[in-house]
Fold each of these.
Amino acid sequence: MVEYGYINDILILLAVSLAVGVVFLRLRLPPILGYLTVGILVGPYGFAWIDDTVHTRALAEFGVVFLLFTIGLEFSLPQLIRMKRIVLWLGGAQVFLTTALAAAVGASLGLTPESALVLGGVVAMSSTALVIRQLTEQVELHTRHGRNAVGVLLFQDVMVIPFLILVSQATGAEADTSFYGVLIALVKGFVALAFILALGRWALRPLFRLIAKSRSTELFTLTVLLVTLGAASLTHEMGLSFALGAFVAGMMLSETEFRHEVEAEIRPFRDLLLGLFFITVGMLLNVRLLPEIWLPVLLLLLTLISFKLMLIAMLCRLMGWDNAVALRTGLVLAHGGEFGFAILSMALAGGMFPVEQGQIMLSALLMSMGIAPLLIRYNGWLVWKLMPSKATLSHQAIKEQVEDSCRGLSGHVIICGYGRVGQNIARFLEDEGLRFIATDLDPVLVQNAIKAREPVVYGDAANLEILKAAGLECAVALVISMTDDATALKILHRVRKFDDKIPILVRTRDDTNLVRLQEAGATEVVPETMEASLMLSSLLLMMLKVPVSRVFHKVRQVRKERYALLHRVLPGEEAIAVAPRGGVEEHWTVDLSEGMWAVGHTLAEVNLSELGIQVTAMQRSGERIPNPAATTQLHEGDTLILFGSPAALERAEKRLRKGFKGR
């Protein structure tokens, strides 16, 4: 009889992951920490529900393979060049100094040179997943400390490859850990990189074009998996790590037209296997040993956080950033990361560290990632508490720069965000001889604009003081041209408390937050998807010989009604993607039968709009009546097509049946 014990393991993992995932989602904690918790609970040192088997580890290693592949996809040489000062100088100095100092400490404690170097690599890494997600939620990704953090993380991601080469070389069956052995391993890595890139240029690009022409999703997915695992297998056969080949394969495809499609196809495999990887890392943690090693774990944790915080802050100061920005950058990056786990798990599996030392390092790394969300979330508050005078000076310096650039301006337009849309708005204003001032948080963009003698200043438009310095009191209009609704809402709330009359135009991607933006004080909200629909519809109607005046009147009417007509979409993927928090709006049909209260009443008397319901059409005697008038009297046998949220639709049907008594 065939044994299927592994199915029980899978069921246990799925059940515990689901339960823990729900709890962590409610607590707004990163899913990575949830996976680590699952591993601790079900592993051999927890409840011992699942054995830490070789097969589980082998499968989990592919989680790192797919993670490195997607990192390679996001690795852009033009972006690296654009941020070269932060990436190469700040990121390079952080990684090399952290590695060197941590390795020196490890060697002084009796570790072998290669083990000490691996320890340095583990300490040098921070969590790309945690930092990017948290800063994005806090609308701090494009601030000065946010861009510094992204630059450092980009360099760390690249430097994972040499560390993985070192670990795979040092833990091999015939490991050569001498200087020349490591050097040979690095040379082999670069040879593999060059070979895969050449292969990709001459063979894989044509292959992907051929597969894309077939328009087969299955073939495309199979090709992506073949390339990822094939490149990983190639580097493994050369005595290097699986992850190196995956990274190079991703980098190879990053500059092609298939990048986004490849990333979409690989994401389900990556997320699933990466979750399994973190579960296996959690299974490595011996919680029963913690009472014996808690003191060295606590000391290592405090040393890790304080050391990285001070080193990164010092490097930022040397690069010219003020104390507040330097400290905030340090707080954001003062923790361990997922790549540190990847390097450490390979080192532990290869026996590079004694069991107790490995447990101390693993525990400290895990706890640092548990603290990281708090350090990132409250980095601004901590800086104001620790050095209020320095934080004030930093903020004041930016404000004074904005004031100097805007001195003498009056009757101008303030543009928040100077990307492509902001620049297009500026060109229209220039053509009409109207003055403007733009703010942006991209220092490179601002510097280039200043060189081109354009009125652009560096500053956070969500800060009311910055907008005041830009002449908000004497401006004639404010335009929010970025598509970040969270930032737009912040700006609207703060500006409206200061000035409730200035016209504010807001750009947004879709109508998800249309009502919230309007309620927050936006004079006009321009959803890109809605305007694209209007443009296509108007062009189509004119091509079908509908009079131009009638088309223009229809467009004006739709805009006047705040795109109400275009909200009536059938539920599907796009509707779900832009659905408001209250649920996906949908259509619902109600047949009016004998005895229903609504029969004999007009639509105005039924007043379904009070419930948030739109009557998009009515069918009577086989005839469809679109947008029936409010004076339309309802008859038995009519069918109403209603549009709204599920809860509102239920209340509407109840009113149609029982009237206002059915409330």
Note: The chain has three domains: 52-385, 407-522, 582-662.
Amino acid sequence: MSHGPSEDTIASNDSRTANEQTARDGPSPTVPAGKSVTELTIKAVLIGLALNVVLLTANMYLGMRSGMTISASIPAAVISMGVFYALRNAGIGGTILENNIVQTMTSAGEALAAGVIFTIAGVTFLDQPIDIAGTAAVAVLGGLLGILFMIPMRRYLIVDKHEELPYPEGTACADVLEAGSQGEGGVKLISLGFFVSFVYMWLASGMAAFKTTIQTAFSAGQTRGFAIGGDFTPALIGVGYIIGPKIAGYVFGGGLIAWMMLIPLLITGGFVPEAAADATLMTQANAVWDEYIRYVGAGAMIVGGFYAILSMSGTIRDALATAMADLRGSATTATEQQRRTQRDLPMKLVVIGAAVIALALVAIPQVQVGLLGGVIAVVAAFLFVAVSAYLVGVVGSSSNPVSGMAVATILIAALALKSTGVTDPVVVLVTASVVAIAAAVAGDTSQDLKTGYLLGATPRNQQIAQMIGIAISALFAGWVLSFFHQAYGIGSETIPAPQAGMMALISEGVLTGTAQWGMILIGAVFAIVLILMDVPVLPFAVGIYLPITLATPIFLGGLLRAGIDWYVARNDDEDGTVEEHTTYRGRIIAAGLITGEAIMGIVIGALYILEIGAASGAPFPLGFGAETQTILGVVALVALVGIFTVGVLRGPQTVDT
């Protein structure tokens, strides 16, 4: 019996060429359209729901800590394969399409987490409590909009644009699931990353054995306030590895512009907030970033979001045309609907569902964005669902610019609602939350539908599974958000929640007239320059907005990916199978690093809430001095990078044919 995907199987799947795909009318799915295979079962739903909650929690922690989330589709596929492998040994079998349902439901939690933490968490910055019931209502309404609006776009984006839009996570998931239904090998890889990260963060955060953060500020000549540093934790390095050196470089580039150019110029020019005027140089740099630079990042994100919509106008028009053809019941559509692999939930459900959700946004007491807010939310959600679904087809879900779309929505909603007399920024945040959640869920849904398309799944079953997963995620989202707020405080050093802080800042600033419009304009002009240079705007904008201590370790992870790829490429064969095999291992171990740190964050938070150990700082500090902690921190970082590299490269570097 096989134990996990074999190397030659992985290589065979990963080396699927474009010529093989275009030689026929679309890809030949693993399960033919005419074959009936067990798919949406109670067993698959229960496993999917359990994993859904775990990855929801992990990604909420990661997003509030780093300002970025990653797609959970690949680790979800690997973990679900491991579960089915264990069930098979116990005499309970499972099909590849059941496995696909599990990963579809699991990744729904990760997607919803992104929308919630980027927007709803912002109420804490406005001195408002986390409303658990209200969070659940907003999350489920936004999530369902994301799924519903993706239905009319599926055939155009997933089927018609199959060659143009690769959907990297969706294709990778299909390759992993095709490699075999036994996931022992993949589970061992993710377990390695999880264990290393879990122990690393327990030593750092639980016992204060070493520091993970190293930073400094300095002057050069007459210019003051240059700042550099990093919070070198496993999760941030794992994020950098997964998104790769190019995107990580864009993020770091934005950080350098903010912390090594803009902040020194402002400090030297005397633009230091009064409260930090007599503080250390590093404190001054942080104060300037908080007071001015975040608005620059917001301006860049706004332009980036609108530019994405403009670039997507053709896609939106084509998707609407496809949807209208479905409603009219054209002959072509009727023929396609007879094929199992092309059956979607009916378009009538999309129309009626969107109308019901719009009414609920106005009527539910915990939401109540008002009629105008409801209209803005639904219309903007449709537009940004199209943007999100297209963009993740090119760059992947981990680079889905949900925050940029939310910023654009906040700006529109705040200006529109202000004209009607609305003065509460929470109303603006809730309106934007619906849009952000819908966009995040649509990106994940499109990746899952791509996986299903390659495997031969029934789209209708996946869409139902997504809805169930979103409903469960929404019920837990408010509770998890409240848990982290009680444990650490949203906006604290541990979970700064940078995106949520920015959303609250812009909402309040527009309504009160205190928004730093000059800084927003600077960011907007900067984004226009990047567009003219054909450089991606949103990764740069995120880098400007993030603290440099988060951008640096992400860049280190990207460099680690580049170094490993370069080393492997020297020994690779002509068809690239060794490099693909190494990439597979690296992504899975990196996912383990992220999951391990997130789970340790939950453990430490529980200790604080239960008042076990010290009330502040590490629960069980070893009492080392600052210098010793710094030295041990460097040693720990080197060890982490070394273990990760060995884990990725170990085993044969050639693939038998």
Note: Confidence is low (pLDDT under 50) at residues 1-25, 652-657.
